[in-house]
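Journal club prep, shared notes

We agreed each person brings one worked example of a sequence with its structure written out as tokens. Mine is Helix-turn-helix domain-containing protein. I'm keeping it raw so we can talk through how to read the token line rather than staring at a rendered picture. Sequence first:
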Amino acid sequence: MQPFWPLLDLRTCTDPWLQWDDSTVKTVRTAPSRDRPASYSMLPAPGELPVATWQLEHGWRINGSFEEHSHDFPGLAYFQTTGGMLRTGRRAWPIEAGDLFVIAPGDVMGRVHATDLEDAQGWGVFFTADALGPDVPGAHLAWRTHPLLFPFVRGGAIGALRLRVPEPDRPEWSGRIQALHDELAQRRDGYREAVLAHLVLMLVGVSRLAADVVGDLRENSEPLLAEVFEVIERRYPQPLSLRDVAAAVSISPGHLTSTVRRRTGRTVQEWITERRMVQARRLLAATELPISDIGRQVGFPDAGYFARTFGKVHGMSPARWRRAGAG
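Then the structure, token by token:
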């Protein structure tokens, strides 16, 4: 199936990033507000998989430029060659071979200019949590509970996260996305299972590349955030407060609060809780430790407080979460 490159009319408010190669997937636009840009939701046709691909190359055309915007679903933009520009958050990234941009729900994509992808060659892959199976929680909750979606949990203020695929792995990445695209286009018997398999393997790859969150933040020119996350990573199993983190990075709690919230859309305490919940989920899924022991290992000496915090984040108790995963 050859991709179709329409000449976009800006009055249609169709997202140029989302001119899918698969015509069964469309987007719905929500108008911008005073402090937020326009946002888009994915709307697959009834019964269709909520997964879409888009080939990023020189055939892409628009009239002039397209508005700053965000999406309420995650995506990946992988580039096989050097050339072109991607605008996200506060930055305009010159595209290099092996660049992988992790686009979280709410990440702001900058105004797109007609020449931005003129020299680019790569792929976009976008999906909703529903693609990972019927047992995945609702969209908002899924980004915080499914282990393969953790790289997409960052808040919407920082912009897409730029990762680097090592050169020896690049042919495999290109081949896997091409295979996913072909399955969606050809719809042979078993294509749903094949699409899910390719998507899961890609997300495993993203999770491995994003495992070094401190290194990723330094790569993305966020040295203060790198220090903050380094402290959280080292000390989350112990009692840890905003004041503790502020003292460790040598700035005032007020300045740290405003900076982290502005850069990530979350507070320091929310990030501490998020890191603790990630480890709690891992221990619940991979061990038979008593829930009270798990709570202590992730910084909650009070078992009742651990259960309440876990329930507030996940919408269910730790015991129920463990049972659901075992089933």
